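User: Batch of two.

Assistant: Item 1 of 2:
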Amino acid sequence: MPTTHELLKKFKEIKTLPHVAIRLSKLISDDSTPMAKFEETIRMDPTLVLRLLRMVNSPYYGLRQKVDSISRAVVYIGMKNLRNMLVVQALKEIFNSGEKEGVFSRRQLWLHCAAVSICGQMITERIFQQKGEDAFLCGILHDIGLILEDQVEQKLFLQTLETWQAENRPLIECEREIIGTDHCSLGYGLAKDWKFPLEVQETIKRHHDSRKEVEPSSLLGVIQISEFIVSKLKYSELTGMNPTLSSSLSDHIRGNVKEYKAMTQDLPEEMAKAEDLYNS
């Protein structure tokens, strides 16, 4: 039975974030990094330059004047949004490679992660009036461990899903029994290796732990609420996956039910608006 370390090593040999994405993530984590350093790094990747300018000039941002410089584009979208754009583009390549019909759909997982990322950002910004870039990042990454299992140990992964469906036990329990680890631990390992924020790492590691009380405004609380909401809107990562909430999160939603209803009504439109970011 492979260890978490062995699976991570095998995955990183075949799939990794581009070098420039990792370098930019490190620069973003340092508040003292000058803008010139970002521009110098971005220019190393002509494809990234095109994506950046295409994105900032898209209807999603609705700017009246065309932006044609890297520095101005970064100012408009922000450092963290730049990092998130890189992650989305890199993960698209991973999610879309080698799709096969069967018990597991990479397309379904991609839609789930996109929904959680958008919903998480909306909750953070609308409900808690905080910046939502890290919630977006965590949402798009939180289930990357499932893709890792699918690509590195596909036979064991499919056996795990069949066992989960047949026995109706927690997925993580089945993963640990058959694969030897779980997608939360694997996702945490990747996020740590990719130098993402510590709270993002910890939330990926714990996003299925609904037994403990969680502060609703924390990143973990936001992602757990997002998973619950998007599952009700038919954006589950696996057919039959129905996440539960701790009492603190349930009480929070009941206490803000009008705000959440309004936000939920806007979610499909937000996903449609963001479609250009995924399909560009």
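Item 2 of 2:
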Amino acid sequence: MTMVAEDAAGAPGASERSADKLVLALPNGRILTELRPLLKRAGIEPEAAFDDAGARQLRFATNQPGLDIVLARAFDVATYVAFGAAHLGIAGNDVLMEFNYDEIYAPLDLGIGRCRIVVAAPVEQSHDDPSRWSHVRVATKYPRITRRHFARRGVQAECVKLNGAIELAPALGLCKRIVDLVSSGATLRANRLVEIEQIADITSRLIVNRAAFKTRHAEIAPWIARFEEATRAG
């Protein structure tokens, strides 16, 4: 006979209760600053530890009894949702474009985290004409986006995969061009790089695991509506 874990009061234990909750995966880093007002308008207030810089936990309860929050790297949020470890998440469409998970449904553009994916090169190459390229070597953390972008023009892209400090690549002689996410452009300018062309505008999206949307539709659909209302009110 399978035993159900119980707490001292005889009710199902914490692990049992936690398993029943919806999980919302959020990206850590700068986007959280923009996310907090949106979460508040959607009626979500995380527990105090969420704002404690010294806290080591990554999963947090909220004021909503049926919802927990987890924090993850921006690139990992989509993976957690695609594989069902989280039911909902917030991810930039750069991540969605890169991984292109069939398991993810993205019903709502939240209009935050605005930036762009660009091709950039050293200042002295600012007059390069991308339409004349036949082969490029590019440093990027977006190899799939990069290859697709250049393939549309019949250009072969050799991608050097980096996970950070992409702007260093030209200065260190790794390659002449990069594809990266840009907001103000200050980091490019500080490293004597300029935009050559833009690949895509980027914003953050509410994403949902497709299987969970079917099996737990009555719980998830109201959250989509809440986020939609919160976005309009922003």
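Residues 14-113+203-233 form a domain with the D-Maltodextrin-Binding Protein; domain 2 fold (CATH 3.40.190.10).
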